[in-house]
Amino acid sequence: MSLKHAIMVLLETEAGSGYDLLKRFKQRLGFFWQASHQQIYQQLKVMHKEGLIDYQWEPQLGKPDKKVYIMTAFGHEQLVEWLHQISKPQKINDSFLVKLYGGHLLDKVVLLDELYQHVKQHKKALTIMLAIEREYQQLSQQERNDLAFPFLTLRRGIIGEQAWLAWAQEVEVFLQEK
Amino acid sequence: MSLKHAIMVLLETEAGSGYDLLKRFKQRLGFFWQASHQQIYQQLKVMHKEGLIDYQWEPQLGKPDKKVYIMTAFGHEQLVEWLHQISKPQKINDSFLVKLYGGHLLDKVVLLDELYQHVKQHKKALTIMLAIEREYQQLSQQERNDLAFPFLTLRRGIIGEQAWLAWAQEVEVFLQEK
DNA sequence: CCGTAATATGCAACTATTTGCATATCACAA
DNA sequence: TTGTGATATGCAAATAGTTGCATATTACGG
Predict the structure, then answer these.
(1) In terms of CB atoms within 10 Å, which end of chain A has fewer, N or C?
(2) Which residue intervals of A25-147 are DSSP H helices?
(3) Which CATH number is B20's domain given?
(4) Which of A46, A62, A83 is the last residue of a domain?
(5) In a domain, B89, yes or no
(6) Distance from the Cα of residue B170 to its chain's centroid
(7) Residues in CB range of B160: below 8 A, 6 or more apart
(8) What whole-number distance in Å separates Cα of residue B141 and Cα of residue A156?
(9) What is the pLDDT of residues A84-99, one digit of tens each?
């Protein structure tokens, strides 16, 4: 299970509440790790029980109080241990491909329709990532250095989306010719 | 849940036992839908209870008997209905990227080591897919037509793996320069 | 004052997946 | 005859993830 470790990687850089983490997941890890707020809150509770993290209630002005979590020494140790283990290959479960596999059971217009919707979403994601990439390029040498690893994961997102869109082109041509 | 639908797409084309399906998953859907034998047997049981599929024990020569599942009319109906619904965007949970995101916590040699292992696996997968592609290209027009949809999913796998490897190159260069 | 949206946290029930165990048939080779 | 490997099916327990519900604070605009 790696939601736990994804949370620790985030908390290692900077302490934060469940809500903060939710936003970081959405903004920074969204294209390679997705987690709902329920999952995050549940996991934080479990991790606290396991002694991986600790927390403090923090009052805020103009906002509800929040529970700010920080890594414990034990948590740090466990994270580093996990980082040293080879991760299992990513599990892919893509239902659009299942659908396409059985595409002969469907009208091509229905498939094209769905394809367009997916294309739209992938283009949107790519646009956002390219904007982040441009911001990154304009940072100072020092800042770029600090963010080098997150930047590599962003590159994965960009390359992945471009590949997806190139493939979608092939599918579109096929469906239109058919 | 789409394991159910992946199974139905497979059974729609050809009846088969749990074990047959397991092999089809591994050989044909492996790069976009992964399922263990336990998952498949459990799901078949549930699907039978729901009336989506039916089965018959089939004795075999030189092999243990098997339960051959076929689609019911109801199953077909439900599958077609599912095919008409827009599928949710694929959920990605890639722990190697989590690790890379926190790469500053790790020695670059450890990361490079792991990268090489992943590269090896992705190259292997790509080689297999390219071989299947070549086989496909040599089929008759009629056969190619029958397999056009599975072929599109194969293309997704090929393009995806090529993109992954191109990205891995970037990561390698970065880690070696560092 | 009322509705809406962002911020903030959580429970309970259900569904899906993984892990570990368990068993049995048959072919083939040592 | 003993072990190995492919074929074939499954249960039970644990873990992980989803869905639906529930609540509260504060800002801001109408």
Answers:
(1) N
(2) 37-49, 73-83, 95-101, 108-137, 141-146
(3) 1.10.10.10
(4) A83
(5) no
(6) 27
(7) A160, A163, A164, A167, B31
(8) 37
(9) 999 988 999 999 999 9
Q: How close does chain A come to B43, measured CA to CA in Å?
A: 16
Which residues from B are below 8 Å from A88, CB to CB?
95
Per-residue pLDDT of chain B (178 residues; tens, 9 = 90+): 799 999 999 999 999 999 999 999 999 999 899 999 999 999 999 999 999 999 999 888 888 899 999 999 999 999 999 999 999 888 999 999 999 999 999 999 999 999 999 999 999 999 999 999 999 999 999 999 999 999 999 999 999 999 999 999 999 999 998 7
Range of the domain at A155: 95-177
The reply to whether B28 and B102 lie within a common domain is: no
Biggest CA–CA distance in chain B, Å, is 62
Strand C-proximal protein residues, Cβ less than 7 Å: A 17-20, 23, 37-38, 41-42, 44-45, 60, 63-67, 91, 93; B 1, 3, 34-36, 38-39, 42, 61-64
